Amino acid sequence: MAFLSGLLSIGCILYLTGILFRIPVLQNLHTDARIAAAVMFILIGFFHLAKPEKLTYMIDGMLPFAQALVIITGVLEVLLGICLLIPSLQVPAAWALIILLILMFPANIRVAVLHLPAPGGLPAQAWYTWSRLLFQPVYIWWIWWAVIKIMN
């Protein structure tokens, strides 16, 4: 939910900035949503890189080389987030992020099923870890709507 809060907050700030300062490019919701996604993926990617040990528990015992996988996903999130800001790379980056979100979904299911704490020190209550599963499709839709839908 923190990721969604970030997407919504950044998107709204960008849109309002566009209106207040009459910046046409920021008065486009698709653009604002794409930039918000880029910022959030870059931030979450840096979190993966700065503290991989805080996330390895999600896949430890499920996949080998848990820490390396967390670092790889962090690098991918940062790079793909940056690519969302480069016009010629936006669509491939969006598809790659959608695939990455789908690939990471089993780790979130594992957290809920095993009653593990949510990443980042967020609540460990069952209602929270299970509700997080509902947001993964929202993030996928967000990226699709902000980048892929507008390009077609």
Plain-language structure description:
- 72% of the residues lie in helices and 0% in strands.
- It is globular.
- The chain has one domain.
- The protein contains 5 helices and no strands.
- Helix 3 runs antiparallel to helix 4 (90-113).
- With 152 residues, it is mostly helical.
- It has helices at residues 2-20, 29-50, 66-83, 90-113, 126-151.
- It is found in: Membrane.
- Keywords: Membrane, Transmembrane, Transmembrane helix.
- It is a multi-pass membrane protein.
Which key features would you list for this structure?
single chain; 152 residues; mainly alpha; 5 helices; globular
Number of helices: 5
As for the number of domains, it is 1
C-alpha-based Rg, rounded: 16 Å
Structural class, from helix and strand content? mainly alpha
**How are helices and strands ordered from N to C?**
HHHHH
- Give the beta-strand count: 0
Subcellular location: Membrane
Keywords: Membrane, Transmembrane, Transmembrane helix
Membrane topology: Multi-pass membrane protein
Protein name: DoxX family membrane protein
What is this structure's SSE topology?
Layout: H1 2-20, H2 29-50, H3 66-83, H4 90-113, H5 126-151
Helix pairs in contact: 1-2, 2-3, 2-5, 3-4, 4-5
